[in-house]
Amino acid sequence: MIIDHPLLGPRDAAEFVYLGDVSLIDRPDWQAEDAMQRFHDYGYLRDNPAGLHKELWYHEQGDRSWLVVTRDTTTHEITAVELARDVARDRGRDR
Amino acid sequence: MRYSALRILREGLTGNKGWKPVWREPDPKAEYDIVIVGGGGHGLATAYYLAKEFGMRNIAVLEKGWLGSGNIGRNTTIIRSNYLLPGNEPFYEFSLKLWEGLEQDFNYNAMVSQRSILNLFHSDAQRDAFVRRGNAMILAGADAELADEAQLRRELPFLDFDNARFPIKGGLYQRRGGTVRHDAVAWGYARGADERGVDIIQNCEVTGFDIQNGQCRGVETTRGAIKARKVAVCVAGSSSRVMEKAGMRLPIESHVLQAFVTEGLKPVLPGVITFGAGHFYVSQSDKGGLVFGGDIDGYNTYAQRGNLPVVEDVAEGGMAIMPMIGRARLLRSWGGVMDMSMDGSPFIDRTHIDGLYFNGGWCYGGFKATPASGFCYAHLLARDEPHPTATQMRLDRFMTGNLIDEKGAGNQPNLH
Q1: pTM for the full model?
Q2: If we measure between CA atoms, which residue out of B182, B171, B244, B212 comes closest to residue B353?
Q3: What is the interface pTM, i.e. ipTM, of the complex?
Q4: Which class for B175: exposed (0-12), middle (13-18), buried (19 or more C-beta within 10 A)?
């Protein structure tokens, strides 16, 4: 697979480390009443669709940026690559 | 019809006209006591043991494609019980004992061959870890035997003992481990279940669950609605997709594991051999092909095929312990989709929905578990309590903190 890095252009997927489901960006509030349940769901449950999947890849053997890759899990076709930082800010995170 | 040598002789002398289809192809009835979703190894084994050991008869197995079209026909056929943790080892040893009596039990030749499995170690620290594992196995009633380098040099002279990076210092044998003809396992269980009245329904995909007031009353399928007192999902590889229809999100990712077969060779490998410093395992099939594999690709996929970086990694692992493998030509390779769970261990449990049961999360260890998985799932379905060897395979273990994490890798499925 080739990942089209937003800053560096097309790179071999072997340069990256895979983390998983993009929901890992949305870390729960540790002070919430139901923090226990939320952290369980955050840490252990995953969206695992057959089809388009948004997922986190880390460019370990490159510029060490985190990316959000939109990939079809039935064909391996990659349709979008964004910097995870931009995605996190769009979701209301400050960094 | 009972299979025997006498039967073969008689059929051979009478033109082989007496052989019958091995199972029926019934239409689904409107209602069953138990509907098993998934006609793979585990689903068929569940049906077989429900009928044989627990006296249940009114059972259907629903299969989306054809029998055994999933991972029961896409694995590297290895059986073993060399686990460490108390939540796992008794279960896998129970499975190995069932393998040992399986062919006599279901009267079908599954070519169970206890040709041994050898896990190589490459350092003093790894030897210590393997001694500990061997002791844990013996405590659970399994067999384990530590082999030093001198013994292995006599037994397996072709290994690269003096490899500069990963010298071979010895290995942990499980002599009762080995290989099995994987398709025959599905066929044998299907035949045994069918003989006892289980309806095996192929080309019947479950499209939804009939859930009312927190109770599962049946399934919607491409061949109409089927009512059931209990619905038992058993679709490892596609667990998330199926359980999503019941509104559940699982502690599972689907990953692809590749496997490879070379051209047929004269006998060179006596048993199963695994590399201790990377991920590589190899055995030789009865047809002569070297069957081997390594790590999962490491990203979510349902594509049943992998990519080249892992092919290279597997080849490097093979060359590191067994340079002669470089002379063999690869005949074919394939991929199977695995339920990779958050601690690398499986689930056999009830769900929070009454009447809906779940079996999955087998990572890439599902084949060896087939008999015990079926037996323990049948036990749970028939008696509503877990089998003594499967009490820790709970869906809620991440909430309660009772993880079964053999590798200690944490909630990162592609590291298990």
Answers
A1: 0.96
A2: B212
A3: 0.95
A4: middle
